[in-house]
């Protein structure tokens, strides 16, 4: 029986999260009709479609910490988990506005869907794009508000809920700080240092994707403060490792596995650990003009990949990610991490490291 | 003593609201430094500057309902009031992104401040504008999250707080529906009807500016459901009246009193009750091309004002606003509105009507 339970846990968790998301979206759509009719319903449907097929990565962090720490109210945990999926949606929808992206995972995102509707209606492209981005600003606001709503629906005791909201507040504040730093880098015109990049990525992504959901799972399970702190420290290290590897895969990955092209990041001039490292080597100057060129072709991308390899930038990033993953692994030895939690978190470290191979 | 108390109440209220806002912003700035350093601090300072000198209209609605219904925890009410000022900030910052406005009340808004910084750094205008808008997307998210935080800080009982959050959720949902309808109108290419405009303005502005803050003040004061309902009905009518008059003043007002030019709305093609009415008259077709022309000059604006007057559009809007204000006045006769509340709300109706003269 015990084995059966363990084997089925991830599936059961996932089912509960999907259920919480589905029920929330049904309610949102019903309210949308009464507030704003068919047009408002369509916006919620577009948000829902943009969420379909996601890896539910942040929800899994919440559920894993919660169950491994002995939490038994799976429905409550699924609501907190769903809150982080909605926060993720809000942040990527607004991030796409900032990056002027109209596509995500090969399909039109919220901005793209509304840009296409406007173009079909005969609106010229620049205006249609602005229209798509305008609707995406609204959609992101709705998803952000939804994350607060879902925390409230968890139905936990007042003190726990206050704590969960504080973690959510901090996650939003951190990702705003990271997004701002990212925008500032682009304006500065100077490639930031490796440390600057790591600080930015921790704030922009790692905090709300790892630290906050893991800690929320722990808080909801009633874990002691020392465990919450240890979950935060673990989340920070593994989150940074994940992000560094994600950036490497964005340039060198197998697009079949990642679902992303390996030219997009180079074309938009995404600042990563690799780029920050390479920019300090003399070889970079000869290829710098290709980086961030919107017309970059496969040949140019190959030149950039070559320099990122020969300067040792790719290797440096991979080793650095390994360092952070090791620190995360060591963190799990903390006496504040109970054995069952350790057993559940170790595979996460392994999965992150495997991605880099 | 009693007279003294009544005379001083608005001043005292205002002081408490400013105090709650100031303390919240101080905390946000301290957190900002620890999360994101000087750049993040500057963003909060820019948000704070954009809030300075506001009329604190929504906070006044909260405080008026709360005190007139016998509420005595002024500090708690001031936090709820401050939440609605932050919500207002979030919505106008994002609305300015959608409208591509870089100025508000004669000064650079959040987008404008960051556009200017980027331009000074040598970034070309289109990119500098996009950079300003990107930071404004982040700023609006922070202000939206802040409105939830401030409701939590009101420190009220759990059931009351849940109710306050539901009203805040609805306010955000309504304004999103209204903003979406507004964006849709511009894409549709057809001038909407007077009823469409009223429905849109109620959702986009009246709900979060009148209904929600009045009802929140009532809920916090522990008023019975019938009173909360009556406050909502009153808020809806007076909110629509206010908005219609605001649009009339946007074209015919005294810019010295309103602080706005009377050409801006005509230049950007703002759809209002007046325009919807005028568009149904044959005279409109001859001047239609001037409406929404970004290069509209004072001469062209005078032509449009003339047609809005001779078609009776201006008069129709003023009368319609009067109708809504009258309905609001009648609503005050409801037995669910206690005498003291009635006495406090009547001057609001009077103020709204006076603006139209």
Automatic annotation (TrEMBL), chains A, B:
Which UniProt key words apply to this protein? Answer: Magnesium, Metal-binding, Transferase
Q: Which cofactor does it need?
A: Mg(2+)
Task: Please indicate which superkingdom the organism of origin belongs to.
Answer: Bacteria
Select a single GO molecular function from the record's annotations and give it. Answer: prenyltransferase activity
Single GO BP term: isoprenoid biosynthetic process
The UniProt family comment states: Belongs to the FPP/GGPP synthase family.
Q: What is this protein called?
A: Geranylgeranyl diphosphate synthase type II
Protein species of origin: Plantibacter flavus
